[in-house]
Specification:
The protein has 334 residues and is α/β, with parallel strands linked by helices. The protein has 2 domains: 251 residues, Spore Coat Polysaccharide Biosynthesis Protein SpsA, Chain A, CATH 3.90.550; 70 residues. An 8-stranded mixed beta sheet has the order 7-5-6-4-1-2-3-8, sandwiched between helices. The longest helix has 33 residues. It binds uridine-5'-diphosphate (UDP) and magnesium ion.
Length: 334
């Protein structure tokens, strides 16, 4: 019996060309529209496909909506997580459950990444290319500060990334081959910075320019604080340079201190002893105190991550997984 199911699963896998993974958190306002546009695009592409909606512990009607869509469309798979785990983990859950044999697309539900671009991705996808990532040309509806910080972040990570090149202005929106995905899924770290992990795997990739639209409805769940945390995640998961920074800062301060000491000795020798310099003493103490606290904090960031990783907990729990009903979708294909 078990073999029968295993075989059936494998057969199903090979039937599907492309899986589209969509993490959803409180997306009740946009999900129906998203699905409509996705279907229009994918039906025109003419490949067998499924869409995997991951409900990341939404507190609104997102799950009910997914269930509704499921009843109408056999090409929908859904993963309902046991609570909100955050986008990076929701995405991983979706990728874990994607059955496609050939390629997997990752896309946001809010229509900021237009589903129409998937058509171009598939067109640009060749045998010798394992990943087609979409790079933003324009970012409509995002504040100047958000664009500035995101611009700065991609430049910093490009400098610190340790030989992996994370393409600038690129989100999670991309198409991956099954081979790349299988490798990607072997990385089970808790602190996941997906944009970095995609590139860490390697393989030939191709860039596709697109215009990022404003959110269709609802509101972004990323404020500046969570973006800051994501940036920190990105930097600390891919570089130990901040730890080395502490050493360099230490060197620099000691270097300056030596010159300062020499200057004090010469000054005392030439013009005798002054009243001990309270202001300069104070500023040196405060400066060094600040640097020490900052370095401690930096070390703490890494230790915190080691602590979280060593617990080795599962990344997420699934409350329910419904697999797309391929048999019906096969009939539809014929
Ligand atoms: N998302 C998620 N879990 C979360 C937060 C967001 O699955 O905890 C999903 C969300 O539904 C959307 C995508 O991640 O499909 C991007 O989120 P959002 O639009 O809020 O981010 P932004 O586009 O502003 O970076
Ligand atoms: Mg968005």
């Amino acid at each position: 019996m078990l073999f029968f199911y295993a075989e059936m699963f494998l057969n199903m896998q090979s039937h599907i060309d492309i899986s589209i993974v969509v993490p959803c958190y409180n997306e009740q306002l946009v999900l129906a529209e998203f699905h409509k546009r996705l279907c229009a695009v994918m039906d025109a592409v003419g490949r067998t496909w499924e869409v995997v909606y991951v409900n990341d512990g939404s507190t609104d009607q997102t799950l009910a909506l997914i269930r509704d869509l499921e009843r109408q469309d056999a090409r929908i798979s859904s993963v309902n997580l046991s609570r909100n785990f955050g986008k990076e983990i929701a995405l991983t859950a979706g990728l874990d459950h994607a059955c496609a044999a050939k390629g997997v697309v990752v896309i946001d539900a809010d229509l900021q990444d237009p589903p129409e671009v998937i058509r171009d991705m598939i067109a640009a996808w060749a045998d010798d290319v394992d990943m087609v990532y979409a790079r933003r040309r324009l970012r409509k509806g995002e504040s100047f500060l958000k664009r500035l910080t995101s611009w700065g972040f991609y430049r910093v990570i490009a400098k610190l990334g340790n030989r992996i090149v994370i393409p600038p202005d690129t989100g999670d929106f991309r198409l991956m081959s099954r081979r790349l995905l299988n490798d990607l899924l072997q990385m089970r770290e808790r602190h996941r910075f997906m944009k970095g992990l995609f590139c860490w795997v390697g393989y030939p990739s191709k860039e596709l320019l697109y215009d990022r639209a404003p959110r269709l409805d609802g509101k972004t769940s990323f404020n500046y604080w969570s973006l800051w945390n994501l940036a920190l995640e990105g930097i600390t998961s891919f570089s130990v340079f901040p730890l080395q920074l502490a050493t360099y800062l230490g060197f620099f301060v000691s270097f300056v201190a030596v010159f300062y000491g020499v200057w004090i000795i010469i000054n005392t020798a030439l013009s005798g002893s002054h009243v001990p310099g309270y202001p300069s003493l104070m500023s040196v103490i405060l400066f060094l105190g600040g640097i020490q606290l900052m370095t401690l904090g930096l070390v703490g960031e890494y230790i915190g991550r080691i602590f979280n990783e060593t617990k080795n907990r599962p990344l997420y729990f699934v409350e329910a997984y419904h697999q797309a009903n391929f048999i019906v979708s096969d009939k539809e294909e014929i």
